[in-house]
Amino acid sequence: MFVYIARETASIRLSTVDRAARDYNTHSNCKANEMEGILTKTEKLLHSYLQDRGHTPVIKLLDKNLCQMGDLLVQSKADSTLTLDEQALLTASREWPLPFGAISIANNVAHIWFDRVSAFRATLAEKEWQADARAPTAGTIYIEAPTGKEWATMTLTEFRADMLRTVVKNCFQHAGYTVVQAGEEQLADYPTANATRVKIVQQKSKAVPEQCIELLCGSVLTGSEIQNAAQYIGLRANDMQLIAQHRYGLRLPDVCKLQRLVSSLGRSAAMVDMLHTRHTHVIDMRSQQGILRNQCSSKGASFIMYNYARLASILRKHTELVEQGAGTAIPPVADIDFSLLTDPDEWLLLYAYLMRFPHTIQQTIGYGQPDGRIAPYHLLNFTLCLIKCLSKYYRRVRILTENRPRLQPVMLARLYLIRSLFDMLRVILNILDLEPVEEM
Question: How far apart are CA 226 and CA 337, in angstroms?
C-alpha cells in the first residue's frame, strides 16, 4: 500500500557520519534545550501520534537508498501488524515542522519520505546552525580554562588537552549552556547545584563525584624530533604550504600575508591531527614513521580550508556580479523556488548536514548527561563528511550561471543552499577553534 504526494526519484546515499540508524528513544530523557532541531521535533510528534494509536514505535533515520527506502523508517516493537492510515498521517504531518510527502507500508514497516520543498524551506528559514540569538537555557557547565602556555613551552599532550577544553567549551556554549571557565582552584569554589563539572584528565578516577564528567585525554608520545607543540605546528605549517601551493595552486605575492596564512594552516592542521584520533587514544609520534602515520591519517585540514575558501569565492563572485548589475541578488527564503533543487546531493546536503547539525552537537557533548560520552571527534567527522559531499557537489554542478531569466531561479536556489552551508561551516570552524581562510 502506497500513498504519495511528492518526492524525488534520484538515489541518495548518506555519508558515514550517519552510518548507524538512530532510534528515537536512545536519548529521549535528555534535557530539553534550544538546540532541539526541527527534525527531532518532527520525530517526537510522529512518536506521539503513533503512541496515541496504540503503537510502540521505533523511528529510525535511514542511511542509504533513501529514494527507495524513505528518509524515516517506522517499526512497532509490540505489534505483529503495523496498521496505519497513511492519508491521515500525511494530513496530520502538514501541521508539523517537517511535513511528509509520501508513505509506504511493506512487511509491517512504514517508509516515510519528507516533502522536499517544505523541508528545504523550513530548514533554511530556521537556520538552526546559528546560536547567537539564543539565551543560555540548558544549564551550567564548569570547565578548566586552557593553560595559557606558549607553544614553545607546551608538550603536545598539553596542547591536546587545551584543545579539548576549548572545543568542549564551545560545543556546550553553542548547545545553549552557560559555560564558566576558570582555573581548577577557582572552580572548586563555585556552587555545584544545578551545574556539571567537565574535567580533562590523564587518568580517570575510581570514584567520579556526582555532577562531574571526566574526559580522558590520551597522551601524545614524542621523541627527539618533536620536543614541544611549536615544533609540531611548524612542521605541519611547512606541510600545509606545500599542499596549498602544489595541490590547490596557492600563489600569494605578499610574503607577510603568505606567512600568516601558512602559520594559521599549520595550527589548524595540528589541531585536526589531534581531533581526528579519539581523545581517549594515545598518539605515538616517537619516530618519523609515527609522525607521518598520524599525519597521513588526517589530511582534512587543507581540504576543509580549501573548500571553505572555495565557497567564499563563489559567494564573493556573485556579490561582485550583483554590484556590477550583471547578476540578481539572492532573494528572501520565501521567494526561492526550492522545487528546482532536484539534484541528489542537494537533498543530501540539507538532510544529512544542515538538518542534522543540532543532533551532531548534542551527540558531541554526550547529550549533556553526566553519564554521557563527550566525543569531539564526532563534530570533526561530521565536518569532513560534509566537506567531501560539498566538494563533490560543486565540482559536478555549476553554481554561477549566465544572467539569463530561465537560468536565474535555479542558480538563486543553489546559492541560497550554498550560503547556508557556508554559514554553518563558519560556525563549525569557530566551535573547533580553527581560523577560517577565505582565500587560497
Answer: 55
Helices first, then strands: H and E counts in the chain: 14, 12
Contact, 338 vs 382, CB < 8 A? no
What is the spatial distance between Cα 397 and Cα 94, in angstroms, rounded to a whole number? 32
Kindly list the distances between the CA atom of residue 86 and the CA atoms of 40, 45, 98, 112, 148, in Å, as whole numbers in the listed order: 21, 15, 16, 10, 59
The interaxial angle of helices 255-276 and 377-396, nearest 10 deg, is 120
Rounded Cα gap, residues 81 and 90, in angstroms: 20
C-alpha 270/C-alpha 337 separation (Å) is 42
**How many other C-beta atoms can be found within 10 angstroms of the C-beta atom of residue 346?**
23
Cα–Cα distance between 309 and 389 in angstroms, integer? 16
What's the whole-number mean pLDDT along residues 315-323?
94
Per-residue pLDDT reduced to its tens digit, 140-172: 899 999 988 999 999 999 999 999 999 999 999
**3-class DSSP assignment, residue 302:** helix
- What is the sign, positive or negative, of the torsion defined by CA atoms of 187, 192, 198, 202? positive
The residue type found at 390 is L
In angstroms, rounded to a whole number, what is the distance separating the alpha carbons of residues 240 and 158? 23
3-state secondary structure of 72: strand
Cα Rg of the chain (Å, integer): 24
